[in-house]
Amino acid sequence: MAPWILLMFRSLLILLATPSSFAKFPSRYFPSSIIHPETPSLSSNTNLLYKTRYFTQILDHFNYNPQSYQTFQQRYLINDTFWGGRKSKSPIFVYTGNEGNIEWFAQNTGFMYDIAPKFKALLIFLEHRYYGKSIPYGGNRKKAYKNSKNLGYLSSTQALADYATLILDLKNNLTTMDSPVIVFGGSYGGMLAAWFRLKYPHVAIGALASSAPILQFENITSQYSFNNIITQDFKSESENCYKVIKGSWKQIEDTATSKGGLELLRKSFHICKNYISGSYLEGWLSTAFVYGSMTDYPTPSNFLAPLPAYPIKQMCKAIDNPTFGNDTFKKLYHAVNIYYNYTGDVKCFDLNDDSDPHDLGGWQWQACTEMVMPTNGNNKESIFPISRESYTAHSQYCEESYKVTPRPTWITTEFGGHDIARVLKRFGSNIIFFNGLRDPWSGGGVLKNLSKSIIALVEKEGAHHVDLRFATNEDPKWLQDVRKREINIMKDWISEYHQNLADSDT
Fold first, then answer.
1. Parts of the chain with a pLDDT under 50
2. Predicted confidence (pLDDT) per residue in 174-207, tens digit
3. Which of 20, 208, 225, 453 lies deepest, with the highest CB count within 10 Å?
4. C-alpha dihedral sign at 358, 364, 365, 367
5. Which pLDDT belongs to residue 43?
6. Nearest to 98 by CA among 199, 201, 207, 11
7. Helix (H/G/I), strand (E/B), else coil: 296
8. Which pLDDT score, from 0 to 100, does residue 30 have?
9. Among 8, 1, 48, CA closest to 363
């Protein structure tokens, strides 16, 4: 899902490190995973999906100083509609929350609800610390985000320890210690799911990690991979569409610096009166193309925004529309309008709007500490202007913003990543990695089986954690087949678990 968005899922704040015109964009326009200033509508029927609970969580799992024993209220959502109960040792499916409001992810992970009756599973959605309503320091967001000292407890390792602690306590309270746990996650949540299985194998018997770019660190994956995939997505739809977008950046910059140019751009793109500069406009446009690529789903969606099926196809159809002649700005406006205003409700666009309805601000801290994911390289073929990742610029930004220095090698030190096939073959097991190749994050994903039980499901037409979405009658056969494979693999995990449990009792 930040993930990460996410991006899933939500890691492209690294664009702040780029010494190009794109470096001038405000952070809210930086597409990022697990994943995003995304705006799904929260359903009025959420009470039908889950009940809200809170767990008293420790602030610091890895230190025994007195301050470590401070606590905060961690939110989680629970659905026991289909649970078979403790006597039947029915499974518990747990979503490892991303960088945002857990309700957002719970409403966009329909796969778990769809399969719960088949497994008689209990569903749990865990909210990540410092996001949503799971705020330390008495729930005081201003205090929690005040400085690096207070933000220092926001990390993936602390979040995973939260999840392990909560799951074990919940199982104990339900007197269901023999119920197997499988963790699910998309985008950053998918990364957490995979890492959870590796770090806490005694808690979870398996993990479904969808669109989890666990290899998007250091030099494991090329910094050009992300934008190369976006480029190919548009190019494969229409060569002309690709060329128009690619050629538009220079035209926008030239117009912005000409007399009356900013007003022309403002009118062309229906920008409200608080229009800032050509750079802001470029960032706004590029975000639509990045997110359109991430969510190029085969059915209509409301995850990042209300979108039609195959939004890239619709964007390119607008750009290729012959009635627009050679008017590049009109072509671009109608293309990005599909992402920003598909419902037609918006009369003008506010580039000053820095609202964060899903509480994603903490990701900027994570990107400045451990989640250093180089993604902003653009070669000469890229749909975006040529650029190269600059760790120096990124580090400078983090020093100025938080007085911290990023640790680009920490994730691979803590969880691994280099030579992952050889390493995980020795000790890892029971992980499904799904990746759709139209998803720009797939470049940092696991795309080949690593062992008999660490399985890579790869689909050429797949987008960002599309397998975790609610099933519809319009889903293509390849997507139906992916879900069937995931279900069958998890059935095998649970069957093996119960067999081992029975053997140990005899």
1. 1-44
2. 999 999 999 999 999 999 999 999 999 999 999 9
3. 208
4. positive
5. 42
6. 11
7. coil
8. 31
9. 8
CATH code given to domain 46-210: 3.40.50.1820
Query: What pLDDT sits at residue 357?
Result: 57
Residue 223: φ, ψ to 5°: -65, -15
Which one of the listed residues 210, 464, 467, 475 is annotated catalytic? 464
Instruction: Considering the candidates 11, 187, 279, 442, report the single residue annotated as catalytic.
Output: 187
pLDDT tens profile 82-109: 999 999 999 999 999 999 999 999 999 9
Nearest residue to 109 (alpha-carbon basis) of 130, 126, 134, 86: 126
8 A C-beta contact, residue 174 and residue 83: no
Tell me which of 439, 442, 467, 475 is the catalytic residue. 439
Alpha helices in 223-310 (DSSP H): 225-237, 239-256, 261-268, 278-294
Quote the CA–CA distance of 469 and 125 in Å, as a whole number: 15
Known catalytic residue: 439?
yes
CA dist 169 → 162, 166, 176, 463 (Å)? 11, 5, 10, 35
The answer for residues whose C-beta is within 8 angstroms of residue 167's C-beta and 6 or more apart is 92, 94, 124, 126, 181, 203, 204
Q: Are the beta carbons of 277 and 271 closer than 8 angstroms?
A: no
Confidence (pLDDT) at 39: 30
Domains of the chain, by residue range, sit at: 46-210
Q: Model pTM?
A: 0.91
From residue 156, give the alpha-carbon distance in Å to each of 96, 178, 188, 236, 250: 11, 27, 10, 36, 39
Pairing of strands 431-436, 206-210: parallel
User: Which helix (DSSP H) or strand (DSSP E) does residue 492 occupy?
Assistant: helix 477-505
Q: DSSP string covering 328-391, please?
A: HHHHHHHHHHHHH-TTS--SSB-TT----TT--THHHHHHTTT-------B-TTSSS--B---H
**Bridging pattern class, strands 51-58 and 92-96:** unpaired
